[in-house]
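To: structure subgroup
Subject: Chain for Friday's discussion

All,

I'm putting the inputs and outputs inline so they're searchable in the archive.
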Amino acid sequence: MSHDLVIRGGSVVDGTGAAARTADIAIDGGLITAIGKIEARGRREIDADGLLVTPGFVDLHTHLDAQIGWDPDLTPVSWHGVTTALLGNCGLTFAPCKPADRPLLAAMMETVEDIPREAILSGLPWTWEDYGGYLDALDGIRPGINVAGLIGHCAVRYSVMGDRSFAEQATPEELDQMCAIVAEAMDRGAIGFSTNRYEPHKAPDGRSIPGTFADVSELVAIARTVGARGGLMQLVGASPEVLQAMGDTDARVLFSWGVGAQKGSGRGSSDFLDKMIGERDMTAIVQVRGTGFMFGLQSQLPFRGETWSQIRKLDLAGRLEAIRDPATREALTAEGRRTDDWKELSTIYDLGSGDSPDHGQDVDQNLRRTMEATGKSFVEIFLDRALETEGKALFNLRMFCQNLDELGDMISNRNVLPSLGDAGAHVSQIMDADWSTFVMSYWVRDRGVYSVEEGVRRITSAPARVLGLSDRGVLAAGKRADINVIDLAQLSSLQPQIVNDFPGGAPRYIQRARGYRATVVNGCVNIENDLHTGDRAGEVLRRVH
């Protein structure tokens, strides 16, 4: 007897929170068939001695709905141990969609999530009108990892109400139509519904996107439709009152949350969540580090002026050549000093020159302190760092989660899962798609906020339960073989870099990883020694009736 694949001698952390144990894992036909001492050989074997073996990671917050069309490997998340990703967050989806409405839905995704509309329109097949048809189209793409989908409020509301969907309330008949569309989408495989009440999320004409101002009764009616099918309600920008109304339906509720920078805000936020959630089936997700806007010579330039406008038109090589010229640098410095009106200097951090970005700095290790210590201006520091690193240096503006100590207090809460990497969105502005690697390397290994077992549980079985997936997220016989083999001591995210690989040459940040000996998706090795193998065995995961 032989097995398709055997992972031998690893420290198995099964995702339940149970203590690690040394064991082999046998895989056949995409399933785990045995865990323990495996005598039979595998047609393929992975030596996991000294390595951590975990379930594949589950990403609860992505916007890869468009990128999957031209990047079926779903990078960067697939480089970081993610084997299942949730699409359709924040109320924004490409279905339901009449052919005439495609440009509008693409444009709203661009203005809200920074995904170029032309890439969306040219990079997807657009063979569908309803949400089930969208999932069918994803089947044809053959993704490298598993994906599940939510149907978005924005598209549902616009399909029923047209232009009235932006600001007016639905009639009872229109609400019935919306509930019917959601029910049909879930019957075709959607695992739930997403909505967005964050007013700054705008359509191209400046109006807040459809659903922002929908009456809470509309959300409750839809949530009851979702709950009747055992589904998930995902919300962004929702008030505690709205969240509590959702929690009183039969739907599971997933919502985005944050934490302040002031001392005690982490514990205070944690206590507030405990009180608000109680015993309801509600889960908060939060970013895993300070984030908001990343910039450097290779990407966004933070200064204004005629000379800066000229080098902004150049590629990285051209920009480097320009700043090496003393006269050009003098002009850039003068213009930068005149236009340096950044108020956020105390929340900007230099990500360093090492192989990995330094996201772990204390709140007082910011750019303002560097300026005080060196006597240099922001523009001088920016240009110095660009020259020292061949233009690769990056700075990170922490708009959210500025204080890691406070964040650590909050993510310890039983109702909070670390996530919110936003992969596929804001692709030229942030790079948080490595969130899972950061959780394991920083919060588990370096800070010890989670034990290895608890850290793994929080990014495997816990989010799988939120999605309603009973066959993934745990290493056990009979479960799907989504597995990571990790060198935890070496695990790290590499420095982000800008590439122009979106349709039309649009730019985005990518970020690779170090320490993934293997990532297995449905029994096939998707990543080996941090690189894709070329096999794509992902599935479109549909709600089970």
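Points worth raising on Friday:
The longest helix spans residues 172-187.
The chain is about 30% helix and 20% strand.

D.
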